[in-house]
Design goal:
This protein is α/β, with parallel strands linked by helices. It is built from six helices and six strands; from the N terminus they run H-E-E-H-E-H-E-H-E-H-E-H. The protein is about 40% helix and about 20% strand.
Length: about 120
């Protein structure tokens, strides 16, 4: 999906990065823990989160994320939006729960980050 398609799918309001709406996103991750985002997100991804502090933008930079959607109608403070703008990160706010956003994106064709799970034998012991 392109970020423009994501904006439409979620009925989101873009906060910054309008010039990058044509970029493609191939997976999504939902997390309020940036440590989980660092562990599970892959390239060309987006993050859905309810956290609105600078750590989100820093994490997005480390992971080279394409966009961040702030769920539950949350809007980060101006300094965080400024950091995102400087980084070229598309940020948006969505007046829906994280669960609903994930469902809408999945229905629209976007999938979660691929995961490698241990086999049952490896997990058992």
């Amino acid at each position: 999906m392109t970020i423009a398609e994501i904006v439409k799918c979620l009925d989101a309001r873009v906060l910054c990065g309008e010039e990058n709406l044509g970029q493609r996103v191939t997976s999504a991750c939902c997390s309020d823990l940036m440590s989980d985002a660092l562990a599970f997100i892959h390239e060309n991804a987006m993050l859905l989160t309810g956290i609105t502090n600078a750590h989100v933008v820093r994490t997005a930079g480390i992971l080279d994320l394409k966009c961040v959607a702030f769920v539950r109608g949350k809007v980060p403070p101006p300094d965080v939006i400024g950091m995102a703008r400087e980084a070229g990160l598309v940020t948006m706010t969505v007046n829906k729960t994280m669960f609903t956003c994930a469902g809408l994106l999945y229905e629209g064709g976007l999938r979660g980050a691929p995961m490698c799970w241990p086999s049952r034998d490896e997990a058992a012991g």
